[in-house]
Write a structure and sequence with these properties.
The protein is of the alpha/beta class. Helices cover 49% and strands 17% of the residues. Helix 7 (171-188) packs antiparallel against helix 8 (190-197), helix 10 packs across helix 13 and helix 13 (308-319) packs across helix 14 (348-356). It binds nicotinamide-adenine-dinucleotide (NAD) and zinc ion.
């Protein structure tokens, strides 16, 4: 799969390690000039897998940060840059980002600024990382509580997908990552939505199925990104479910923290209802979406029974969302399953109403 800009490739499993090995042998001056970025968990669970495929990577330099979203900030970037400096990194250095979205976001960002830009490769180890964070060339870190406020568009050399990493990933993280896969189907590919819909139990999915579903999901995102790399228009459809989803994520942060994917599922249910009300989404599609998510994600019940004052607070959070232009809350809304519009304006009363449905 080729990125139109510069030649980003996505490789799977054995082929991926072959590719990386050849790249390291032929396009990096010395293995000592390669840096593997991990967090404490990917150090434990994922590094041994990578080394078992490419043993000479043992001689590269390891940079480790603590795991967690709190670490995705500019201070950690400086710490990583200081480590690169300590190990005498230069403009020909290569960073291998081995981890979830936090590692690929921060590692990609550091690669984009260190010595005005060095090469990097993404090796995502979470489902969310594979189908979303490591795809699409967005890198960045948070500024205090403002998500992804500092960042850049920067293209990796290539992307390596090994679904074997998912074996050690907690089930709730898998479920969270699946939300973005469902989203890809809803906004751009009905067939893929139907395939995702057949998943009734995670334990029933074997490695080959994961491989296939992840590949399809990446293709859908990559195709959208290729058409609008800098999010001037079409790429905004990837925000479906996220206007309300982000607000719910922030709101529940103070009470019982919920994972991003769960917030997005709740956001997609609400925004599908709004899509039905003002964007022509057939009621049968809305019912289909709601029942699918209710079966797989019982957590979504949280949005029912919110009080008026709670809904007001969630609305206030949405008003601060950076995607709002000219003081209007902007949505991406479904036209039907597989088709999505963007830059849709929604009245406050309709937003309130969607929580009561
Ligand atoms: N750049 C983008 O376009 C984009 C898109 C979506 C999300 N993101 C970002 O991605 C981040 C979330 O990514 P995430 O959900 O992968 O979070 P994460 O990177 O924090 O990973 C989740 C947890 O799983 C652990 N982990 C990772 N791989 C593991 C494995 N194979 N086995 C066991 N444990 C493992 C991590 O150490 C961490 O504790 C957010 O910061 C979000 O903003 C970026
Ligand atoms: Zn998301």
């Amino acid at each position: 799969m080729k990125n139109s800009d510069r030649g980003e490739f996505i490789y799977f499993h054995e082929k991926a390690y072959e590719m990386l090995k050849n790249y390291l042998l032929n396009q990096v001056d010395s293995i000592k000039n390669t840096f593997i970025l991990v967090d404490d968990r990917t150090h434990q669970h994922c590094l041994p897998i990578l080394l078992s495929h490419i043993d000479f990577l043992k001689e590269s330099n390891l940079i480790q940060i603590k795991s967690g979203e709190e670490e995705k900030n500019i201070h950690t970037c400086i710490q990583i840059c200081k480590n690169l400096e300590k190990f005498k990194a230069n403009r020909k250095s290569l960073i291998l980002n081995l981890g979830g979205g936090v590692i690929t976001d921060i590692g990609g960002f550091v690669a984009s600024i260190f010595k005005r830009g060095i090469r990097f490769v993404n090796i995502p180890t979470t489902l969310l990382g594979m189908v979303d964070a490591a795809v699409g060339n967005k890198t960045g870190v948070n500024l205090d509580s403002i998500k992804n406020e500092i960042g850049s568009f920067y293209i990796p050399e290539f992307l390596i997908i090994d679904t074997y990493f998912l074996k050690t990933l907690p089930k709730k993280e898998i479920i969270s990552g699946m939300a973005e896969m469902f989203k890809h189907g809803l906004i751009a590919n009905k067939d893929f939505w139907m395939k995702m819909n057949q998943i009734k139990d995670l334990n029933d999915i074997d490695v080959n199925q994961w491989h296939h579903l992840i590949y399809q999901s990446i293709l859908i995102k990559q195709k959208i990104v290729d058409q609008d790399p800098k999010e001037k228009g079409l790429r905004k459809i990837l925000n479906f479910g996220h206007t309300i989803g982000h607000a719910l994520e922030s709101y529940f942060l103070n009470a019982e923290k919920i994972l991003h994917g769960i917030a997005v599922i709740m956001g997609m249910i609400c925004e599908s209802w709004i899509s039905y009300k003002i964007n022509g989404l057939p009621i049968s599609d809305y019912e289909n979406i709601k029942s699918t998510f209710s079966e797989l994600y019982p957590m979504q019940k949280k949005i029912y029974g919110l009080s008026d004052s709670e809904i007001e607070k969630i609305l206030m959070i949405m008003e601060y969302d950076k995607k709002n232009e000219k003081n209007k809350i902007q949505f991406s809304l479904l036209k039907e399953i597989g088709k999505c519009s963007y830059n849709c304006q929604v009245t406050h009363s309709l937003i309130k109403e969607c929580f009561l449905k």
